[in-house]
């Protein structure tokens, strides 16, 4: 049985992320979506909010689990006996950073492969920061995030605006 | 009559920005330069300083107006009946981000086209952050910003240095 | 009245080209689509076949004309009093070549601006060579070319296959 | 059981190709390396030479088969019930072309995923054309191709030089 | 006698930096490694720690000196009668930023050339921020930094973790 | 004494090439410009025409010699005791190919460094193929090639046109 992990900030999960998760679920026997703690970033959603939102989006994917991790991804992959890290590729700048991470993770855990997938064209240019930017100005984010988390994202930014 | 908007931080306006504004003014009947409020950035110049500096640089362009906006650009373009957003392209990394914005703006306002222009070669690699970096160390910024705002930029950084 | 020219090989015209032509037709008063003779390439379709196919695809666009040209584009643009060359941008490698052409054309004809547009996401990765490759192997090209020229392209490659 | 196909010209197979094939063999239950006929290219090795050389390089990989195909890859993948196409990524220009192919193949065969892997750093910049260029001038190609095909490549270029 | 300067943040120096410094030392008669003060960044190591760590790594290179500078690099190069700035190139995004800096420095000091070198493949994707990220999570950084500074980096992050 | 070689097709030499040669001549004690025979390309000018044109353009550079070579560059550099290959960098696509060549040459000749320089902005986008394209259509190539070879290039394309 091949296990893959799908790491990210998911702040919040977008239709682009979900598209990549669905593809990974077809390629691997078991997929663990991992919300990674990034100390440098100031997320809009708490870790448990982010885990919870993804869980609600993947109920139709029986071989997908959701988890969070604070530490080296290479070590986490080892613990879970994962064969692969799955990443969605959007653009050239993504590609270079992901390349660097892939080579580093391979050095830290030689049995761990990084696998890159591409989202569908119309979801390829989506990003969480774009979603937050549009939401912050009251724009319509329905085309960008899964319907089941739409109220969460709208709520978060309405509340923030009121502060 | 075709209206285009030319958005940016313009912190401060550079010869590269001015070059793109002049080209836009030849292509469209009416051009609105819009200083966009970006909550994530800490600008060196206030919004009104930035608007004022651009105004002084475009007095020779009768079909160019200067404005500022805090909100979604796609909505602003709609209010102004603009057909196009005009952006200068410098480099590959610009290109990818601008691509993402262009596709997002088109989804938020389907009648809105993003049009990319290239500056003259010798202005292509200019950026506001470069100007600020050179000015902060007392370097000569005369080749990089329009002459009419040179004292403003030098003044800002001299004062800041004295603090 | 602003005139723009839309140059290319169009061997054959794709849905991606048509998308860019339609956008150009909204931005400019008059658009001339120009099939450019490229001596280095061995086109699948003759010059007049290519012109004819485009003409049939743009009948719904009253301000669009179709022409062909063998020579410097900058000179052609001058003759037609065009203000702008319009090009669709797909990817980073396009971007660099187009950049070089834009700077060269500007030097040969200083009043001529090159304007870059982006196609809709789902048409962004289309190219004529891809269409020909799929057609050559008997694949379905209906998603890639305008319906009105589909028989022409299928015919061309059926005949070629029989030779 | 998940089947992946690994397509390419392999003219000749390099250490970089072999590295990607070995990674694919760890990720999927069955891997079919497919030498693709490309009518535009003039290969140095015949189709059967290329298939034979790869076969000798993958004898240590029990779940890897070698085949050749003249036609649409998406159709071939369908016949073989393959879930994925595996491609090695080297550089930005690779990335864009592969992107385009991945989106096209997905449209021609919606169940077919393209998966990108990265070779080890020291094999990342290898290419068949580089190998041929070095061999043509009598340079040492031992660091670039698997030892078991070294005589074949040297032989080919010695003979060609004598003609 | 040709003098080159090798500027950077070196927070901390990595095997990739050292590789580029060694190459520069073979190309130029005298090389000055300069730790540049960057007000925007919050370095993990103090300026004197960074200078000291580099000094210990270059004891085998008799024509290499280490210095620090707070100000315009172009002016510093002028004071030192340097002919060239030497920079290591890793990736496309590096390339664009470095291009911009090279053109700016040339304008500020016309006699100053920027020279780009590439590190060995297996050091090409290394960066100080990657080292810090791995160290912060207790990962093994021995493959990434020179052995003589390994205790310094481990110490710094152990202490920081205890705070 | 440090020797550098400056390889290229130079078909014909452009102002961009000359700019890079002049920079190399300031950085190194001796520079050998080498016209490299590329069997895949069909040059417009013969090898001796190309060597002769460069010679006439570098008479003001006493430490620059011009030569031609048919074979591996790494071997040629070894014979000439060259420390470095100097290449001008224009764009991202250049960068990747040059990277690959630099790593290959280093493997074939470990003492050989590849050094990248950038041309002046207004010469950065020049290429020999662009010059030939403009000349073939009777466009003005005076801004693109050194004045001393202008008649040679015009002559070549006038004659070719008459054939």
Reconstruct the topology from this structure.
The structure is a homohexamer of 163-residue chains.
Chain A: E1 3-8, H1 15-27, E2 30-36, H2 47-57, E3 64-69, H3 73-79, E4 84-89, H4 92-108, E5 113-118, H5 128-136, H6 150-162
Parallel strand pairs in A: 1-2, 1-4, 2-3, 4-5
Beta-strand percent range of chain A: 15-25%
Query: What's the N-to-C terminus distance of chain A?
Result: 49 Å
User: What about the largest sheet of chain A?
Assistant: 5 strands, parallel
CATH superfamily of chain A: HUPs
The helical percent of chain A reads: 40-55%
Poorly predicted parts of chain A? none
Number of helices of chain A: 6
Query: Would you tell me the overall average pLDDT of chain A?
Result: 89
Structure description:
- The structure is a homohexamer of 163-residue chains.
- The first copy, chain A, has 163 residues and is an alpha/beta fold.
- Chain A has one domain: Rossmann fold (3-Layer(aba) Sandwich), CATH 3.40.50.620.
- Chain A is 43% helix and 19% strand.
- Chain A contains six helices and five strands, in the order E-H-E-H-E-H-E-H-E-H-H.
- A five-stranded parallel β-sheet of chain A has the order 3-2-1-4-5, sandwiched between helices.
- In chain A, strand 4, helix 4 and strand 5 form a beta-alpha-beta unit.
- The model of chain A has no long low-confidence stretch (mean pLDDT 89).
- Chains A and D meet through helix 1, helix 4 and strand 5 of A and helix 1, helix 4 and strand 5 of D.
